[in-house]
Design a protein that fits this description.
- By secondary structure, the protein is α+β, with helices and mostly antiparallel strands.
- The chain has a domain at 5-41 and 68-88.
- Helix content is 26%, strand content 20%.
- It has two helices and five strands.
- It has helices spanning 26-32, 45-60, and strands spanning 5-7, 10-14, 17-21, 78-79, 86-88.
- The chain has a three-stranded antiparallel sheet with strand order 1-5-4, with no helix packed on it. Strands 2-3 form a two-stranded antiparallel sheet.
- Strand 4 and strand 5 form a beta hairpin.
Length: 89
């Protein structure tokens, strides 16, 4: 038995390569992907404190928080069918 995650995506081309774009909550992202510490840059402490200040500013004012895009590689991890969402196994 296999399990699928359906994620609505937009298909486009970037620098000659097919790319898929989506927006989803971090909780959904982390349920699908794990961070590869071999390729992830180390956290710079001064940047972390700025990020924490940014988050606290919006939480204190009950506003939504928006982060810039995250680039992920899922080569071979799913299927794309025209007019259908990408399916991850």
């Amino acid at each position: 038995m296999s399990s699928f995650f359906e994620i609505p995506v937009s298909l486009s081309r970037t620098f000659g390569q097919t790319t898929l774009t989506t927006t989803l909550p971090l909780s959904k992202l982390f349920s699908i992907y794990e961070v590869d510490l071999e390729v992830q840059r180390s956290i710079v402490p001064q940047n972390l404190s700025k990020l924490m200040d940014y988050i606290m500013l919006y939480l204190d004012n009950n506003q939504g928080i928006y982060f810039p895009g995250i680039i992920l590689s899922a080569r071979g991890a799913g299927e794309y069918r025209k007019n259908d969402p990408l399916q991850f196994r």
